[in-house]
C-alpha cells in the first residue's frame, strides 16, 4: 500500500469557530485542513440575522492567515421568531443554511426552537428559496434517556418533518446511532448526514477509560459499539448522503476539566488524520476522498474543490494543548498521543 494519499481538498460541513480571541486561535487550523467550512451560528448571542451573519463572516475572514485560501459558509440560528420574510434577506446575504437546535439540546441552544410547528411558515419559505436545514437531532424531553435522544428524534421529529417538507434539503448533523444511519440511508436525495471523526473512532467506553475523560464528551454523546459500526458502514458505503462534518467544538480546557464539563471535542487540528485512521481501520481508504471532498459540495449544490492535499502515513505526536484566546489553553482530542497520518 502506498504511504501517501492524494485527495481533492476537503471541506468541513460542520464546525464551531467561536468568536473574538477564541476565533483567532482556531480558524487557522480549519483553514489549513479545509477549503470551506460550514460555520455554526451558536455564538453568544446567536447569529439570527443576515447582517449578523455577514459581520461574522468578515470576522472569520480576518482570522484566516495570509495566503491561505479558505471560505466560510454562513448559517443562521433558527428560532421560534425567524420569519418567512427574513428568508429573502438571508438568501441575499449568501447564507446557505439555517440550524435547528431544539431548545436546551446542547451548548448555547437556549434560543433554540421550542416547538418545530412554530417554524413551519419559515421552513416553507426555506424550501422555496433552496436554503438547507441543518438539524441537531436530539429530543430534549427529560424523560428520554440521553443515549436514546437521537433515535427518538428520528421518530418524533424527523419523519413528520420530512413528510411535511419533502423538498427541503435537510442535513441530519453529527449522526451517532444505527437508527439515524438507517433513516438517512432509506431517505430520498433531499436528506443527508454529517459524521464526526470521534463517532467513527470511538464508542462510549472512551469516556470512561480508567476514569472520566472530559475531552471525549460531546453531544450527541458517543454511543455503543454497534452504533459506531453502523456509522463506519455508512461513511465508507460510498453513498453520497454521508459526508464529512467534524463538529470540532473548542472549549477552554478549564471548562472541560471542570465540575460541569462543556460538550465538544476539538478536532480541527488533526481532523483529516483522524478520519484517515478510521477509514484505514475499516479497509476503506479508497472511500475517504468522496466522503471528505465530493459528497458535501454535491449535496449543497456547490462546486467541488479542484486543488489537492496529501496525507502521509507517518507517526507523530499531536500537541497536548494549544493556545486558546488570551489566557486559556485548548486540548485537542488525542492531544499528547500518537497519530498515524499527517496532512502535509
Ligand atoms: O458537543 C457539542 N458541542 N455538540 C454541539 O451540538 C455543540 C457543540 C458546541 O458548540 O460546543
Ligand atoms: Zn456542532
General description of the model:
This protein has 344 residues and is an alpha/beta fold. The protein has a single domain (11-303), classed as Metal-dependent hydrolases (TIM Barrel, Alpha-Beta Barrel), CATH 3.20.20. Helix content is 33%, strand content 18%. It has eleven helices and 13 strands. The strands form three sheets. It has an eight-stranded parallel sheet. Helix 3 packs parallel to helix 4 and helix 6 packs parallel to helix 8. The radius of gyration is 19 Å and the shape is globular. The mean pLDDT is 96. Bound molecules: (4S)-2,6-dioxohexahydropyrimidine-4-carboxylic acid (DOR) and zinc ion (ZN).
User: What characteristic shape results from the CA principal axes?
Assistant: globular
Mean pLDDT: 96
The helix count comes to 11
CATH architecture, by name, is Alpha-Beta Barrel
Profile the largest sheet: 8 strands, parallel
The proportion of residues forming helix, as a percent range, comes to 25-40%
The chain-level structural class is alpha/beta
Strand content: 15-25%
CATH superfamily: Metal-dependent hydrolases
GO biological process, one term: 'de novo' pyrimidine nucleobase biosynthetic process
Subunit structure: Homodimer.
Family: Belongs to the metallo-dependent hydrolases superfamily. DHOase family. Class II DHOase subfamily.
Active site: 247
For this entry, give a set of tags:
binds zinc ion; single chain; binds (4S)-2,6-dioxohexahydropyrimidine-4-carboxylic acid; 33% helix; alpha/beta; hydrolase; globular; TIM Barrel; 344 residues; eight-stranded parallel beta sheet; three-stranded antiparallel beta sheet
